[in-house]
Amino acid sequence: MRLVIRQDYDEVSDWVAHYVKERINQFQPSEERPFVLGLPSGSSPVGCYERLSNFCKSGQLSFKHVVTFSMDEYVGLPREHSQSYYSFLWKHLYQHVDILKENINILDGNAPDLDEECRRYEAAIVKVGGIELFLGGIGPDGHIAFNEPGSSLTSRTRVKTLAYETIIANSRFFDGEVSKVPKLALTVGVATVMDAREVCIIIVGAHKSVALAKCVEEGVNHMCTVSAIQLHPKGLIVCDEDTTLELHVKTVKYFKSIEHVHQSLIGTENLSLQGQVLSAKGSTSRITKRRESDINSLTSSYSNNSNDNDKGDDMDQRPNKKKKGSVQ
Ligand SMILES: N[C@@H]1[C@@H](O)[C@H](O)[C@@H](COP(=O)(O)O)O[C@@H]1O
């Protein structure tokens, strides 16, 4: 698993948006072979969606051959309600990009048979060949999608009762009134997310620092369902400095050092890394704006490799590395 730490929300959004853009562009999707992307709702991905929309407007990215599956939806909330995840994704992403309507998959929280709707969703994912990249967010208790504490780590798309903590956390979107928050939701399962060929979780804010620490420093545990990412061969978490509050200093230094080495191998240590080193020394200086091409080269090098910290994978980044068995 990789942990990428950026200074603040904007830098996290920049990083993830560039990463998604690079992954889609490298994949060279076509009608026959679309890029399948899993998407979260919530405030965490909004900055990323804004940037993806801008990439589309400036012609750097196209969603024409991208198929999406959103993570979750409230039960019983009309689709046109401003807080349905359907409305959310249209507002923040779909209306701004060139995605084809038939390529958008959203769970229907008003389906007459909710169990059947969940089965249909799982089958639709299988039909397109599985999810290439699942973007995700978490709740303060470490739930991924709506997989509340205690959810099976082998769970599939299903109906879930929301935890009281989640209802309170989400009441900020319902005029602060707990009674207005739906108590049930449809959600992809933990295993649905972990089946994706790659998983990238955005975690921002001090209120999620305990969850991040549990996810990174403790074992895989159903009480913090995002921790299942530890078992994923290409798991990536992108967080901001505030979210690292509960991590051990040595954990933060470790992941920063991995990134430092990684970046120096691809020759960008004087750019984005400068900020990392400064902040590791306690400097309050912000990371200077990186050139887009540098971020692109960094993000693409991540996507070409397994995201675990195995030395062999990192070393494969060396430009002059002689491949095993190649003529020398
Ligand atoms: N079910 C959603 C999750 O999919 C989302 O990741 C989480 C975090 O939301 P935010 O990013 O607004 O903190 O909220 C809800 O509980």
From TrEMBL:
This is Glucosamine-6-phosphate isomerase. It holds the Pfam family Glucosamine_iso. Residues 308-319 have a biased composition (Basic and acidic residues). Residues 8-229 form the Glucosamine/galactosamine-6-phosphate isomerase domain. Keywords: Carbohydrate metabolism, Hydrolase, Isomerase. Belongs to the glucosamine/galactosamine-6-phosphate isomerase family. Residues 282-328 are annotated as: Disordered. It catalyses: alpha-D-glucosamine 6-phosphate + H2O = beta-D-fructose 6-phosphate + NH4(+). GO terms for biological process: carbohydrate metabolic process; glucosamine catabolic process; N-acetylglucosamine catabolic process; N-acetylneuraminate catabolic process. GO terms for molecular function: glucosamine-6-phosphate deaminase activity; identical protein binding; isomerase activity. InterPro entries: Glc/Gal-6P_isomerase, Glucosamine6P_isomerase, Glucosamine6P_isomerase_CS, NagB/RpiA_transferase-like. Catalyzes the reversible conversion of alpha-D-glucosamine 6-phosphate (GlcN-6P) into beta-D-fructose 6-phosphate (Fru-6P) and ammonium ion, a regulatory reaction step in de novo uridine diphosphate-N-acetyl-alpha-D-glucosamine (UDP-GlcNAc) biosynthesis via hexosamine pathway. GO terms for cellular component: cytosol. It comes from Absidia repens. PANTHER family: GLUCOSAMINE-6-PHOSPHATE ISOMERASE. Its EC number is 3.5.99.6. It is an enzyme of class 3 (hydrolase). Residues 296-307 have a biased composition (Low complexity). It comes from the Eukaryota.
